[in-house]
Amino acid sequence: MRAIVQHAYGGPERLSLAEVEAPVPADDEVLIRVAAVAVSVGDVFLLHGEPRAVRLAFGLRRPKHAVIGRDVAGVVEAVGAAVTRFHVGDAVFGESEQGGFAELVAVPERFVAARPVSVDAVHAAAMVVSGTTALQGLRLAGVGPGQHVLVNGASGGVGGFAVQLAKAMGAEVTGVCRGAKAEHVRAIGADHVIDYTREDFTAGDVRYDVIFDLVADHPLGRVRRSLVPRGTLVLSSGKGGKVFGPFGRIVRASVLSPFVSQRLRPLAARRSGEDLAELARRIDAGDVRPVVDEVFPLERAAEAVARLESGEVRGKVVIAV
Known about the structure:
This protein has 2 domains: 2-126 and 290-320, Quinone Oxidoreductase, Chain A, domain 1; 130-266, NAD(P)-binding Rossmann-like Domain (Rossmann fold, 3-Layer(aba) Sandwich), CATH 3.40.50.720. Helix content is 27%, strand content 27%. It has helices spanning 41-48, 55-58, 121-125, 128-141, 157-168, 182-187, 220-224, 247-256, 273-285, 301-309; strands at residues 2-5, 16-19, 29-39, 71-79, 91-95, 104-108, 112-114, 148-152, 172-177, 192-195, 208-213, 227-235, 263-266, 292-297, 316-320. The strands form 3 sheets. Strands 3, 4, 5, 6, 7, 14 and 15 form a 7-stranded mixed β-sheet that branches. A 6-stranded parallel β-sheet has the order 10-9-8-11-12-13.
């Protein structure tokens, strides 16, 4: 089968198209013929091997997995002996551990869901990791009607879903993004938009019930001052050093949380077929719509990754296989 492979850490130039052996599904796995795979920040981390801490799990000198990619959508090609919920020919989407930049990928059944009937494979792939991360983050914060939620990084993949899901949960939503992306963030449902190039949300007088921080561009103390006394800060991804990336800040928040009135909650998003099924229901109900920035063919996967790295993306970058 065709796949995009990398044999060394580095930038998009490390990616190349190759013929590799097709995976064989284990008893509990679904073999998916991939129609589309989204590019996520996690893919970029693994491509570069940075922050360096990721190499402890994914290969110190070179990647353990030659094929990256997690957010897949396609059609069931085969099923393992223990699979009960899916059959050959079913339209599905799911989250693989790796291996999604390929024509075929094997994914455990519990991390797969039926594709929403109202969207195609490209848009289904766009919501796998970003959608589940946003859903789990808002759930962790206990977002509900009447709350004021700020999403820092509202124009990206996770941020865009967080804005839409928070609105669907009844919250008043403020999105933080670059000014050029403000109209996009308003269009997906934000009640208020802050252009971070002109205004620092941590310097204002508004206090939020929940801050979903996807950027990590302010010290914890300043972000906390923008919360109500019993507010919740959810931390996921963002900036950081080359060794630990955003994880150092997340650890500091975890240590501090028991000693302050506010809840500081690191988000470790997990694979979940149940959450994908909930997202599918919300998509079909019209609560949420995946936003696709640009679609690239498989052989141009390096360009797709470079597009995500450019910082100009509105929504998700997707590879059509």
